[in-house]
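for the recovery benchmark. tokens below, seq after
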């Protein structure tokens, strides 16, 4: 392609330059000269720029033959030195803008790409190495933290159970396995409902709602009735629990921390039983002391009323007043018996009896005690149930329980009395501190009356506690029953529910001794005598009454106000003292101590204790044939008959 020269101006110098390139040629030359060619190399812009600057411009090019460019320029006169330099610069610019060899370009680009690829691979390798290091460190950190968390959860003393929103178990630690008697493998993915009661689930939902509404992280599960969970086998047990929530990956998780309260509840019950026992023991001591003094007063009232009645003619109007005094004294005596039974200081005369037979013998009396709208059912074991007790005390127990059952059934009902032998294991004995494992005889008295709530049951053995209206009960009936049972080495338990009824279960130690047939001693034909009796009593009034009763029958009486005086009197008395009647509780020297000393001086002496309650020392002395106990308050007839009987027994044994 050629370009025409412009007209030559005057006073100018013409310079011409030919440039040849043996390259591949320019295939798009027409497009370049028309200004329509687009190239990233700048070739089109270079050619068009040269054409615009030069006064003469010619370019020839064929693909494969190279390119020839002719440049011409009119320069002002005297500027030849710069013309050559300018032309060279222009040629160099065109040369620089000329296209490269396509193969060389491709090779160059390939090399450049290879270099870049190698650089990328090098960087990827380095990144992979760094990523591996970071991942290894991250995995180790996660593993350590997971191990630490698992160790903390596994070693926790309390049960930790985590669940999702559907209550599916996702965490079940070792303490939970022990608490619910279920392995972790078996518990995972199962429902929490398997280990909870209906009340627990209701409270659980309340806590969840509270957590969601308040935004708090934790909520204690508290119930006034106490919270219970359920072991794998279905057994319920008391627990304390708290629930917390956390959101992980958009899902809410709930964690329950639970503590088994079985042992604590048992300890609290034992502690309460201990406090109750201590309280009862303190009241018992007080009741025993009061009863002793009261019995002495009642003895005086009863004795003098009997003397008065013996002296008054049968048609004397004053007899009615004396009889009222006597009746009041007897009523007071029954009240003190209840106090002493409650305090476990009531004098007892234990015998080995068959409890089956005892209850059977009481059936007629029970029939009279109960109303016609109450059905009595007595179920006794076919085997003998021997227990060593005071028969009168057991009668009192059965009658008291039957009387309470009658009052608990105002609209009639059923009273069931059951007697049978049982074997109590260590587990039952732990729940009843007064018992040891072994063989017992159970006496159960049950009714379907009004029943009692838990609060009432916790107080029924307290003295003077009653559920009856004013004037309808002394509050000593069940306290007396409890005292008698405990005094005989047994235990009593109560099971009651409002609207269902009550069951009283008594356990008395089974005796290995032979049954003793009840021995009824014949009353002596005469009550008088001429033997010498040492009377020791610190109450002047009772001592005077007893002296008068015995003197009237011909006995010779030596009197002493306490044990020290009695010893001096015995030392100074040269004759025989056949019998000593002594109170137990006296100042300076107790009656038991007096008996120990005086029987050393007089081995054949018969000792008759007068007391409202007894002590261990009395039982040791009572094992001998020459020691007896007469319970206060006693009637004049009982005193005279007992004295005569003991003196006759001693004289017969001497022969």
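predicted aa per position
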């Amino acid at each position: 392609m050629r370009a025409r020269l412009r007209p030559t101006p005057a006073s100018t110098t013409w310079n011409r330059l030919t440039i040849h390139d043996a390259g591949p040629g320019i295939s798009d030359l027409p497009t370049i000269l028309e200004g329509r060619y687009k190239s990233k190399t700048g070739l089109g812009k270079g050619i068009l720029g040269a054409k615009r600057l030069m006064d003469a411009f010619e370019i020839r090019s064929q693909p494969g033959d190279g390119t020839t460019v002719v440049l011409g320029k009119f320069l002002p006169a005297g500027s030849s030195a710069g013309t050559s330099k300018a032309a060279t610069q222009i040629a160099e610019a065109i040369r620089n803008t000329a296209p490269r060899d396509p193969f060389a370009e491709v090779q160059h680009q390939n090399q450049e790409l290879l270099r870049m690829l190698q650089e990328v691979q090098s960087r990827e390798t380095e990144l992979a190495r760094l990523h591996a290091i970071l991942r290894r460190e991250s995995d180790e950190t996660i593993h350590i933290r997971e191990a630490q968390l698992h160790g903390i959860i596994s070693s926790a003393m309390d049960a930790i159970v985590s669940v999702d929103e559907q209550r599916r178990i996702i965490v079940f630690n070792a303490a939970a396995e022990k608490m619910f008697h279920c392995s972790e493998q078996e518990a995972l993915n199962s429902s929490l409902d398997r280990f909870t009661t209906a009340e627990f689930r209701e409270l659980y939902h309340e806590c969840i709602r509270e957590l969601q509404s308040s935004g708090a992280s934790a909520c204690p599960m508290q119930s006034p009735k106490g919270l219970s969970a359920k072991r794998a086998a279905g057994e319920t047990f008391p627990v304390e629990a708290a629930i917390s929530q956390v959101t992980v990956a958009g899902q809410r998780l709930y964690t329950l921390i639970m503590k088994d309260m079985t042992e604590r509840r048992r300890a609290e019950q034992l502690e309460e039983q201990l406090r109750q026992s201590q309280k009862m023991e303190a009241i018992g001591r007080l009741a025993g002391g009061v009863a002793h003094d009261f019995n002495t007063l009642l003895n005086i009232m009863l004795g003098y009323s009997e003397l008065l009645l013996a002296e008054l003619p049968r048609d004397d109007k004053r007899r009615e007043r004396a009889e009222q005094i006597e009746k009041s004294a007897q009523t007071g005596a029954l009240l003190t018996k209840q106090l002493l039974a409650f305090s476990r200081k009531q004098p007892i005369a234990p015998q080995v009896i068959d409890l089956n037979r005892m209850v059977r013998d009481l059936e007629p009396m029970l029939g009279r005690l109960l109303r016609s709208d109450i059905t009595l059912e007595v179920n006794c074991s076919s085997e003998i149930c021997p227990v060593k007790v005071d028969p009168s005390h057991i009668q009192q127990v059965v009658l008291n329980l039957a009387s309470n059952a009658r009052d608990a059934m105002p609209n009639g009902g059923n009273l069931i009395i059951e007697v049978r032998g049982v074997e109590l294991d260590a587990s039952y004995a732990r729940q009843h501190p007064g018992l040891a494992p072994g063989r017992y005889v159970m006496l159960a008295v049950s009714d379907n009356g009004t029943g009692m709530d838990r609060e009432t049951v916790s107080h029924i053995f307290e003295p003077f506690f009653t559920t009856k209206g004013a004037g309808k009960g002394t509050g000593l009936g069940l306290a007396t029953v409890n005292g008698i049972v405990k005094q005989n080495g047994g235990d009593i338990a109560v099971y009651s529910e409002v609207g269902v009824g009550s069951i009283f279960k008594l356990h008395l130690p089974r005796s290995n001794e032979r049954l003793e047939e009840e021995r009824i001693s014949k009353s002596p034909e005469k009550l008088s005598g001429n033997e010498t009796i040492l009377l020791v009593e610190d109450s002047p009034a009772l001592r005077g009454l007893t002296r008068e009763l015995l003197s009237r029958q011909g006995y010779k009486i030596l009197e002493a106000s306490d044990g020290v005086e009695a010893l001096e009197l015995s030392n100074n008395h040269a004759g025989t003292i056949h019998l000593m009647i002594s109170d137990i509780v006296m100042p300076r020297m107790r009656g038991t101590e007096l008996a120990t000393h005086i029987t050393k001086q007089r081995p054949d002496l018969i000792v008759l204790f007068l007391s409202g309650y007894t002590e261990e020392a009395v039982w040791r002395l009572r094992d001998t044939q020459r020691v007896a106990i007469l319970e206060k308050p006693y009637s004049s007839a009982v005193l005279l008959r007992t004295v005569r009987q003991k003196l006759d027994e001693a004289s017969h044994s001497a022969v």
